[in-house]
């Protein structure tokens, strides 16, 4: 398993991008009911504030450094450069490697329209990838009967990887609650569904290297994201600075 290093009070998995891909696919092949969280600044600040959510991250088999500041903090505090492993990059890489290895995938979350676009791209670019299923659950709390139906459908389809897009922190809590019930490696990749479907553009690589992706998303959805990026990001910087000063 990939070693974890503390950032604030959450463990972040470390390794190269190919090591993350291989580890996740091995977890899927083993059917160990594992789950993967993609940790950005928002997630780490939420974990710092909320002990229950912090435990969700602590119990994850893999916690990727999804945001550049998170990857940077791993390097600052532990003296070893860590590349960013974003869900938006991990998703296409995992799908391509799953096709090569003959492993199957299942998509759970978002909308039927987004899932349809994902299927179209896979059929065009990865024609031999086995799609075990695609389900868009209602945007409300499911009844126990509905929940059991969805879990049974996923297990009957027997995927290696289950991509989950329910929004943070709902998707992470959902995966933690379903560990031991769903026999697959679950990945909370949220926004990656939209980018993979081609419904949301990413900044060029050079702009991502300058940590400008948050500004682009804020420009796209200012009313929904202003608090997350302006308030939460500022709080993250404060917490990191306080921890750095405490170390002397």
TrEMBL record:
The keyword Calcium does not apply. The keyword Glycosyltransferase applies. CDD domains: Glyco_transf_WecG_TagA. One of its GO terms (molecular function) is hexosyltransferase activity. Keywords: Glycosyltransferase, Transferase. NCBIfam families: wecG_tagA_cpsF. This is WecB/TagA/CpsF family glycosyltransferase. It comes from Hymenobacter aerilatus.
């Amino acid at each position: 398993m990939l070693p974890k290093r503390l950032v604030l009070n959450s463990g972040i998995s470390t390794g190269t991008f190919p090591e993350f891909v291989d580890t996740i696919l091995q977890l899927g092949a083993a059917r160990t009911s594992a789950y993967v969280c993609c940790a950005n600044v928002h997630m780490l600040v939420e974990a710092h504030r909320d002990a229950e959510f912090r435990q969700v991250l602590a119990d994850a088999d893999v916690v990727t450094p999804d945001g550049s500041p998170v990857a940077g903090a791993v390097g600052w505090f532990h003296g070893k450069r860590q590349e960013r492993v974003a869900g938006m990059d991990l998703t296409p890489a995992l799908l391509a490697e799953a096709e090569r290895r003959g492993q199957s995938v299942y998509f759970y979350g978002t909308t039927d329209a987004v899932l349809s676009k994902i299927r179209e791209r896979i059929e065009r670019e990865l024609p031999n990838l086995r799609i075990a299923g695609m389900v868009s659950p209602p945007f409300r709390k499911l009844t126990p009967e509905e929940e059991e139906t969805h879990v049974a459908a996923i297990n009957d389809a027997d995927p290696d990887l289950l991509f989950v897009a329910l929004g943070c922190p709902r998707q992470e809590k959902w995966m933690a609650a379903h560990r031991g019930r769903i026999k697959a490696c679950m990945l909370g990749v949220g926004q990656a569904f939209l980018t993979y479907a081609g419904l949301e553009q990413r900044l060029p690589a050079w702009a991502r290297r300058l940590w400008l992706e948050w500004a682009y998303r804020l420009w796209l959805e200012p009313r929904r994201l202003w608090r997350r990026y302006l308030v939460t990001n500022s709080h993250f910087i404060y917490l990191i600075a306080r921890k750095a000063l405490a170390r002397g």
